[in-house]
Amino acid sequence: MTFRNRLQYLLVKKLQISNKRALEIILNKEVMLNGTPVSENLIIEASDEVIYQGEILKEGKKMVYYAYYKPRGIETTLNPEIADNLKDILPFQEPVFPVGRLDKASEGLLILTNDGSFFDKTLRKEHQTEKEYRVKTDKIIDEHFISSMAGGITIMGKMTLPCRVFKIDEHTFSIILVQGLNRQIRRMCYKLHYEVTELIRIRVGNVLLEDLKPGEFRDLGSKPV
Fold first, then answer.
1. Which domains does the chain have, with CATH numbers?
2. Distance between CA atoms of 72 and 210, rounded to whole angstroms?
3. Digit-coded pLDDT (tens) for 87-122
4. Would residue 103 show up in a list of annotated catalytic residues for this protein?
5. Residue from 88, 103, 115, 211 carrying the catalytic annotation
């Protein structure tokens, strides 16, 4: 985390004072962070309010988090110049952006937020965050398919990480990944001579799709873990 994210930098910038003077103000507990005096050079989040001598130096931004069902046929992009983009169909007044992506032919759970720090942290932890999908194929699923998918398959010149795969019925399985290579599940199935006919993401971390329908959303309230 850089100096620019610290309380001291905010004071230097807003009050046009030296780094030394800014640190003195902090150590003397003259700064209020979200209504509480602080004496440490803390990291400042977008949601934080900072007040010095009754003056608001930084207003707190309201963070929002939504579980959204991305419909099939929609690109996970906010670029209005791209056809079938996400921006044109989102029902929110405030600007939000998706955490991660789903390819156009896939559907299901996207987490939408205006919290840049949550976005950055989630992407940095990509190989630790579980993502669960329900997948239908064009052929009957056998034990060789399940074990091969779970053990890892070479796609795009690299072996996929081991994952958990469970058969649901003859043509449907669930898969839990901790990585998100481009069109990973479809490429893995293709290597085993299967074609994906439906792919729905039903979970990201501890956030579930639940009973949402395409185009619907659910307010998550606080920041998802």
1. 3-58 (3.10.290.10), 63-128+210-225 (3.30.70.580), 130-204 (3.30.70.1560)
2. 17
3. 999 988 888 999 988 999 999 999 999 887 776 676
4. yes
5. 103
